[in-house]
Amino acid sequence: MAAGLGLEALIPFAAGHEIMRQRKRGLTLIGPISDMLFDQLIGAGCVSGVRAAWVGNVITGSGYHFRRAVESGRLHLEDHSNLTLAMALKAAALGVPFLPVRSALGSDLFTTNSALKPLNCPFSGEALAAVAAIRPDVAIIHVQRADEYGNAHAWGNLGVVRDGCLASRQVIITAEQIVSTATITSDPNRVITPGFRVSAVVHAPWGGHPSPVPGHYNRDHQAFIDYSEESKTVTAFARWLQRWVNDVRTPEDYRNLLGRERMEALRLKNHLCSEPVDYGY
Amino acid sequence: MAAGLGLEALIPFAAGHEIMRQRKRGLTLIGPISDMLFDQLIGAGCVSGVRAAWVGNVITGSGYHFRRAVESGRLHLEDHSNLTLAMALKAAALGVPFLPVRSALGSDLFTTNSALKPLNCPFSGEALAAVAAIRPDVAIIHVQRADEYGNAHAWGNLGVVRDGCLASRQVIITAEQIVSTATITSDPNRVITPGFRVSAVVHAPWGGHPSPVPGHYNRDHQAFIDYSEESKTVTAFARWLQRWVNDVRTPEDYRNLLGRERMEALRLKNHLCSEPVDYGY
Amino acid sequence: MAQLKRMPAYTPAQLMVAAAAREIADGEVVFVGMRLPLLGFLLAKSAHAPDAVGVYELGVVRDDVAPEAILTMGDLPNLYRSLWLADTADVMGLLQNGSVDVSFIGGAQIDRFGNLNTSYIGGATAPETRLPGSGGACDLACLARRHIIIMAHERRRFVPRVDYITSPGYGNGPGWRRAVGLPRGGPAAVITTLGIFRFEQSTCEMVLASVHPGVTVDEVQANTGWPLRVSSGIEQTPAPALQELDAITRFDPQGYWTG
Amino acid sequence: MAQLKRMPAYTPAQLMVAAAAREIADGEVVFVGMRLPLLGFLLAKSAHAPDAVGVYELGVVRDDVAPEAILTMGDLPNLYRSLWLADTADVMGLLQNGSVDVSFIGGAQIDRFGNLNTSYIGGATAPETRLPGSGGACDLACLARRHIIIMAHERRRFVPRVDYITSPGYGNGPGWRRAVGLPRGGPAAVITTLGIFRFEQSTCEMVLASVHPGVTVDEVQANTGWPLRVSSGIEQTPAPALQELDAITRFDPQGYWTG
């Protein structure tokens, strides 16, 4: 399962929390920098493996559940860099079994990542690394707007979202807004992945919170800072899990928990509207 | 020199004609499907080599100068498919010396393209083809709008424009419109390549004619049909070259030659404005 | 181009477009080529395959017919309200990763195993004729789940062995595609100006499955440069229905491709 | 974190940010990391390097300072009126194809050849401590034309040999980078809480080039796990100017990173 493909933005927290509520088990998480979503999924017991470049909490550092799980040997880990993970997904998106890179050479990533192998260029003979393709069973992405058929727009820093979707067998989309197909087809360059490869679309306003969602809300730094405390011990995390996941039954519950004031504080104050373009004929 | 990277759209004809006027010699042309621009450059004597998937006139077929040049052995040719050429440019864009593909296997492209070599996957052992990176000295692209610093928007079918720009040492942009930086930064997802890698920007209205330029004008089919006749013989081509290239001294000359009526006929009649998005905070 | 002898209210190209359209099943992802295949896709969309999705090498995905007749896939009406405008690498990725069910390609020279040459007549070293080259054809022949070939049926085009393999068919027979490393696919049919061929699984050779109205098997043999193999259940290719002809005329109003 | 003894109107982190900023020349393309490097880039932009261009691994390119203080590169003000919003693969391509002049990375453990560990303390098999991992750090250390390391100076962090190389420095010395296939680059400086190191070309070892105000060489040695090498021309790191401190306060108003 690939998630957090937008790097810091558009992380599908609502979908992740639903996975935790449903007590899914044995997942392998795939993503470059998951911010705290991966740590939460590990804490909730859903995870048996991680293929990632970085797992933690971007502005506070450690992901405590991740640390504990690795240190106790409970997690199968594949250590990537952002580049090798991006290329592993791009390989699957392109339909090839590997891609060559010039990164990671001389590093110990080779010792803790069996998806990396030394390789010589067939033309120049120079040393390279081969990164094996990663083909996730499913990619879960959060976007700003989608139609009911899975045609979706996303904007902002796109991280590895596009390649991650093309790489995955199935794509699940959560969207801030469900819009008409006409809205999507008014700007086909902004479509994030071909809709015919999308399996499910879920209307999930605030579904990316606390990560930033361009056009909708800013990053909720306090949530990341709070989580750092709330995940330091197993006990504290149990309380967090009860409050923010298990007791949340509907998207409305979540928004009520957040509260109007906090949501207002996160909303955009300075708007910047894209200059339109003409797709006429 | 890479050009025609948008495949059928946004072909930099005005820039190509300027190259012909300046009697540049010994160019190697790089591009998947050049439509008739490559044939014109060959006819004008500018070209000593072609690395391409297809050279001709999309709706009429043959590129007569290309045919003659190859048949008389005057042209160094590297035979690609669209996929292998796209991957050769992507390799350079990504900064790796080659990319693996599953295409071309069993084909004779291997016999007329030394940038293709057999390769086995270092993980599975399966047979693949390696495509060597192509790093053009310069990519010339035509876009809809750019600021004076080379920050540019393009939309429509983008072909291999993005990878072609990242792959090239220098990027030259011709643009239908020169706009303010504020217009470009109102929609950074639509930027075609980072401006800091752009060497020159030229204001060239109708600079893509007769290829289609989304937002500005439709494809001028008649020009392609006419050129098919006008390039059948060396004599006919000399007349074409004089009329459409050498006698054209300014962009205004070209537009006068086209004529108001023809330009009106090509303009968009049915407009479709993209739904704006908000990049605020 | 060989001409139909008798007939009628339709052109050979219209018949071929109708035959091409029938190769597309509803819901399939189709990599749409230029010329007749483009029209075949549009016809299928407007008839029995409303949910087929078209992928174009330029970087276009669309699942409906363009709002105006188009001459080539890059015409702006083909971008209008499309479902995705992307890079060629993205759509080539879809093709290479197995997301494309069927594609169509043309050819100048073909052999009985469905190998196609659109590069060099007379060999690459001292070519008699240089053709435009592969474009995306080699990729479609290598990577689609199946591909359909559409071409004029002439003896100089239907040769025992192509001078140059631009787009691989079944190579030299059974097992060849797997041996050279191709991940899937192969030609499923050849639609010519005279008939339709399918490929026999055990030999990978093309077998005449139907002849177009007014065409005889002898005539097909006369235009084929190897001993023709004919299906025991050979049929006549259905003539295009009036409705189909109407649609084709709508998509190609000036008869540029089908006139 | 080791504390500055005397002083003053600035924090160690502010001094390090100012030192980081000085490593950026005007017009350079900078791959901007998190935390102090982000502030260093913003400071350089607003001072001596107005034409530096920032590339962020999220897929952002911008050449001016965000309109509002940001805590992390993904904050929406950092996207606002940026010059390019693209994919991570695109900016990693810029890095890998040699378009990036300088990058900054942090580390938990370093050795005298500038190799960094941000993955496993105590080795990967039975780690004592698991750290977050590479992120983009390994890529920046491998592929930028040069990189600058910023980290806290403690004896447990400055070790003879790192337990795991997350981000390669000069390996085991001269020629190593070329031998393993790295195309360019290597660490140019290490900015710590106590001083600044540069790398000697002939040995690839780090040499103490300056000590921060109030710090002695002995103190640096006491916090370094190998016999310290000291430049013959050792200097004192310039304290941040008032103007620099003002700018840093503007970029980090709550002192989240530099308080």
Present the secondary structure layout.
The complex is a heterotetramer, with two copies of chain A (281 residues) and two copies of chain C (259 residues).
Chain A: H1 13-21, E1 27-33, H2 36-43, E2 47-54, H3 64-71, E3 76-79, H4 82-94, E4 98-101, E5 116-120, E6 127-132, E7 138-146, E8 152-153, H5 161-167, E9 170-178, H6 181-185, E10 198-203, H7 221-230, H8 234-246, H9 251-258, H10 260-266
Parallel strand pairs in A: 1-2, 2-3, 7-9, 9-10
Antiparallel strand pairs in A: 4-6, 5-6, 7-8
Helix pairs in contact in A: 2-3, 4-5
Chain C: H1 12-22, E1 29-32, H2 36-46, E2 53-56, E3 60-62, E4 84-85, H3 88-96, E5 102-106, E6 109-110, E7 116-117, E8 120-121, E9 129-130, H4 137-143, E10 146-151, H5 176-180, E11 187-192, E12 195-199, E13 206-211, H6 217-222, E14 230-236, H7 242-251
Parallel strand pairs in C: 1-2, 1-5, 5-10, 10-11, 13-14
Antiparallel strand pairs in C: 2-3, 3-4, 6-7, 8-9, 11-12, 12-13
Shape of chain C: globular
* Averaged pLDDT of chain A: 97
Q: Termini of chain C, distance in Å? A: 13 Å
Highest CATH level, the class of chain C: Alpha Beta
**What's the oligomerization state?**
heterotetramer
Structural class designation of chain C: alpha/beta
Main sheet record of chain C:
10 strands, mixed
Low-pLDDT stretches of chain A are none
Distance between the termini of chain A: 41 Å
User: Could you spell the SSE succession of chain A in H and E letters?
Assistant: HEHEHEHEEEEEHEHEHHHH
**How many strand segments of chain C?**
14
Q: Name the helicity range of chain C.
A: 10-25%
* Overall geometric form of chain A: globular
Tell me the β content of chain A.
15-25%
- Order of strands, widest sheet of chain A: 8-7-9-10
Tell me the fraction of residues in β-strands of chain C, as a range: 15-25%
Number of strands of chain A: 10
